[in-house]
Amino acid sequence: MASSPFPLFTALLFLTSPPLLSFFILEPPTPPPSCEPGRSWVVQLSHNSEPHESSLDELAERVALEAGLESHGQIGQLHGHYLLCHVAGEDENAPGAGRTLDAHPHVVWHKQENILRRSKRSLVFNDPKYPSQWHLHNDVRLGMDINVTGVWERNITGAGVTVVVVDDGLQHTLEDIQPNYSPEGSYDLNSNDPDPMPHLDSHSDNHHGTRCAGEIAAVPNNSFCAVGVAYGSKVAGIRVLDGPLTDSMEAVAFNKHYQVNDVYSCSWGPDDDGRTVDGPHPLGQAALQHGVAAGRKGFGSIFVVASGNGGLYNDNCNYDGYANSIYTVTVGAVDENGKMPFYAEECASMLAVTFSSGGRQLRSIVTSDWSLQHGTGCTEGHTGTSAAAPLAAGMVALMLQVRPCLTWRDVQHIITYTATQYDTDVDWETNGAGFHHSHKHGFGLLNAWRLVNTAKVWETVPVLASYHSPVLREGEIIPAFPKKLILSWNVTAVDLKQSGIKTLEHVAVTVTITHPRRGNVETVLVCPSGMTSLIGAKRALDTDTTGFTDWTFSTVRCWGEQAVGQYSLHVTDHIFSSPSGEDSFSLGTLKRWKLTLYGSEMSFQEVLDRKRLVEESMSGQFLNSNFSIPCPPGLDIPPEVEIPFTFNTLKILLLLGCFALCCSLYYMLELMLPHLHGPGRGASAAKDGQFLEMQPDIDLEAKTPLIGNDDDT
Ligand SMILES: *[C@@H]1O[C@H](CO)[C@@H](O)[C@H](O)[C@H]1NC(C)=O
Ligand SMILES: *[C@@H]1O[C@H](CO)[C@@H](O)[C@H](O)[C@H]1NC(C)=O
Ligand SMILES: *[C@@H]1O[C@H](CO)[C@@H](O)[C@H](O)[C@H]1NC(C)=O
Ligand SMILES: *[C@@H]1O[C@H](CO)[C@@H](O)[C@H](O)[C@H]1NC(C)=O
Ligand SMILES: *[C@@H]1O[C@H](CO)[C@@H](O)[C@H](O)[C@H]1NC(C)=O
Ligand SMILES: [Ca+2]
Ligand SMILES: [Ca+2]
Ligand SMILES: [Ca+2]
């Protein structure tokens, strides 16, 4: 009796059937099937010797009678579980009932329910919009929420963690923001002052950043509006979207106060018009890389980005260099039914999804709002993948509270290991390491309970390693669908020994393709396991005539797989206008490509072992106990260089940045050339006739950061 009731008891809490539900909610008691608060027992019965199905109900009646209670029937669909109530008007503390149930041969376990009611009560917030925050606790569509309440019940609310919203400003004076506002993490790059307060102007509606911040850290139980996912965390704002945005501004934003800010929530990106191919420019890229190396004392800033809202235009987040970057956590959206909404974008680099708005009849996200212009300080209408990314950022804050030394890669790993498969109608595929991924849903739904439990027991993964193939010059014509150009590159055990990779994380392919109509090109990567990734989807609206110049596509779909083996690129031309589909229409050429593998020396067996550990942690036992894995102290990162910004200093910074970039590229070449001509690889490559020359293409991995030190990866 001592240990077994508890798991079942917790299970009951979440499998709440209508009778139980009406019992928990503290409303005037209704007649049966509910009982008065504090006057009910949950029992599990078993027949023992009497095997008759139909008599369980009668057995419940009998047991109830013997214990001086009355049976209110089976609890929902839980076979053998019954709700027994005190008979109205009798002595509340009749101790006889417990003793009778204890001794009864047919009672497997029992529990008086008032304890359950009390644990639930801690989550009753007085915020008027909390009941409609379905993404936190969905009482209508069960399971369609981020499953965070059990985490909060264990007092895990993001304490000690700061999330910064990089956006159009943050109205930090709002009742729901002010107590959790972090001025130390904030800045205004549009006006060059420390205060990210959004500006009012006649054209723009700068409420976006404030809405995102509310989703993360809206203050609970203040009788105002809503509650944030990580309501014990601090939230900062970096105002950068209200005006012309330059590469250097973006670079500054990504590293701003990066020893204060732990998570950067970015609900924006290049135009979602279905024909843009763009991403962070050199400084922004360098800042992302510097952020993961030096942010958070070297554990790495966590950059959470939205997958984009170009679904209506057939846009794909692999044409968005922020989503595509290995340094970001790319988050897509599902609606309240767990389906991909019309606006959402899919891609092979998407890590996971979480909730947001959907079709007109479905609910949107309820959160804080600015109170300027026509705003009331509260909204029920936050929409798009913009609303999904901050929920993810809040969940990361919860993870960092229980384990502050998780690295930027640990966070991505944990998401991969814990996201859950929901909508079975989409293109799920299980990869060679047993992870399921869909281009539409990433690895699945983010689940705060699973994320936090796993974070608690997660040992830091080995350092990042990478393998770069040479630039493979092809100059091959891309044939029209259904024909395709197939190119392969074998990664040998010797290659991998040099690079130190055993299992994969991200796989990236950098291509240069000329094509008179870029949107016709479709590119698929096949990993050694046979797992396919649609890294470059066709896009009907993309009529660009310049093709791709050293564009890097990436995929997470081979995560955890063994790195060794043959990688193939399948490129085909979907001619949209021609009914005949003649070969003569295919005018595209694949000029060159390059394969980059990211991963670590983690063995395949360890990946499997970690998966088992993750599932073992789900009972919550590690959250409940004093269990903790020691954390290293982290690096001593020198304080930020504070530059008083003027237009001129910006220009100088830009110039310096470009200079540093050139230097680092030169340095890179020096380093890589001998490696490429080393034994083995060079020889086999030459034999294939594919290897021609090393291109000085932009290489994120080896680029020297612009600011400060790092002797990281
Ligand atoms: C919220 O405030 C009410 C009083 O307004 C209080 O009774 C309740 O316990 C509080 N809930 C939490 C979770 O602190
Ligand atoms: C949701 O969280 C509860 C703990 O609060 C846990 O028992 C349950 O298994 C979780 N559900 C899922 C689907 O992970
Ligand atoms: C909850 O956590 C906060 C911050 O870690 C701490 O100050 C507080 O005492 C905790 N409350 C309980 C009831 O454990
Ligand atoms: C690459 O590996 C595949 C099978 O693993 C093999 O058939 C093929 O010949 C190899 N190619 C080269 C160039 O070594
Ligand atoms: C946690 O540790 C403290 C002191 O080390 C101890 O007093 C307490 O009983 C422990 N709690 C649990 C749940 O193990
Ligand atoms: Ca300002
Ligand atoms: Ca509130
Ligand atoms: Ca997009």
UniProtKB/TrEMBL annotation:
GO terms for MF: serine-type endopeptidase activity
Keywords associated with the record: Cleavage on pair of basic residues, Glycoprotein, Hydrolase, Membrane, Protease, Serine protease, Signal, Transmembrane, Transmembrane helix, Zymogen
Gene Ontology cellular component annotations, sorted alphabetically: Golgi membrane; trans-Golgi network
Compositionally biased intervals (Polar residues): 179-193
Active site (record annotation): 167 (charge relay system), 208 (charge relay system), 386 (charge relay system)
Gene3D superfamilies to which the protein is assigned, alphabetical: Galactose-binding domain-like, Peptidase S8, pro-domain, Peptidase S8/S53 domain
Protein name (Swiss-Prot/TrEMBL): P/Homo B domain-containing protein
Organism this protein belongs to: Silurus meridionalis
First and last residue of the signal peptide: 1-22
Family, as annotated: Belongs to the peptidase S8 family.
Residue spans of biased composition, Basic and acidic residues class: 196-207
PROSITE patterns recorded: P_HOMO_B, SUBTILASE, SUBTILASE_HIS, SUBTILASE_SER
GO biological process, one term: protein processing
Pfam families the record matches: P_proprotein, Peptidase_S8, S8_pro-domain
Domain P/Homo B, chain residue ranges per copy: 460-603
PANTHER family from the UniProt entry: PROPROTEIN CONVERTASE SUBTILISIN/KEXIN-RELATED, PROPROTEIN CONVERTASE SUBTILISIN_KEXIN TYPE 7
Source species, domain of life: Eukaryota
Segments for region (Disordered): 177-207
Location(s), subcellular: Membrane
